[in-house]
Amino acid sequence: MSKNANIIKLLKKLDGTLQFEESLIICGGMAVTLAFGGLRTTLDVDVIAPVPLSKNIKEAVKMVAKETGADTAWLNDSAKGFASYLPVGWEKRLIDINLGFKKLKIKSLGKPDLLMLKLKAARERDIADIKTLGINRNDVDIIFENLKRIDRFDKKTSLFIKLQLEEWGFEK
Q1: Is the pTM of this model over 0.70?
Q2: 3-state secondary structure (DSSP) of residue 148
Q3: Domain limits for position 133
């Protein structure tokens, strides 16, 4: 069984464990896979919201990990530190991910928002995810507009992303 299929099984088990409805907004490799058809293997589910994760979710994730032998961080909110890099209006671009769950509602960041976080992280796997997602003029316009805001608190990242996009042939 692929690692991604295993993560989906863990999510299904989590859904069955929950007592109340919970909503998660994911980013990272699993978002690329579930919302955009990416094929890269990932070991976890990165949650960007809500922050912090509810006590109900945290306890259920631990229970699923204990029952299955999965890492306790198989679902985590480590990406919360990147939330300030999200473009204005990201909440309006969320994509519903329907896996047939009863209590667990999952959404992914929209493409320009996911691209923004992937550009910020800029690891080899993030660049591969960017290529999988593809970038169009609309994405670039949203990202460049966002860089004006980011430039006020992180000039280095703003410059890096501008230069990366220019290297790929995208200008303002």
Answers
A1: yes
A2: helix
A3: 3-167
Can you give the pLDDT of all 172 residues of the chain as single tens digits? 566 889 999 999 999 999 999 999 999 999 999 999 998 889 899 999 998 999 999 999 999 999 999 999 999 999 999 999 999 999 999 999 999 999 999 999 999 999 999 999 999 999 999 999 999 999 999 999 999 999 999 999 999 999 999 999 998 8
How many Cβ atoms sit within 10 Å of the Cβ of residue 166? 11
Question: Following CA atoms 5, 10, 12, 16 in sequence, which dihedral angle do they give, to the nearest 10 degrees?
Answer: 160
Q: How many domains does the chain have?
A: 1
Q: What tokens were used for 27?
A: 């980013």
Among residues 106, 166, 120, the alpha carbon closest in space to that of 140 is found at: 166
| Residue 155 maps to a domain | yes
Both tokens of residue 113?
């928002």
Would residue 172 count as lying in a domain?
no
Rounded Cα distance between 119 and 143, Å, is 10
Task: Tell me if 160 is assigned to some domain.
Answer: yes
Place of tokens 């769950």: 101
- Token output for 140: 């670039």
Neighbours of 94 (CB within 10 A): 16
For residues 98 and 119, what is the distance between their CA atoms, to the nearest angstrom? 27
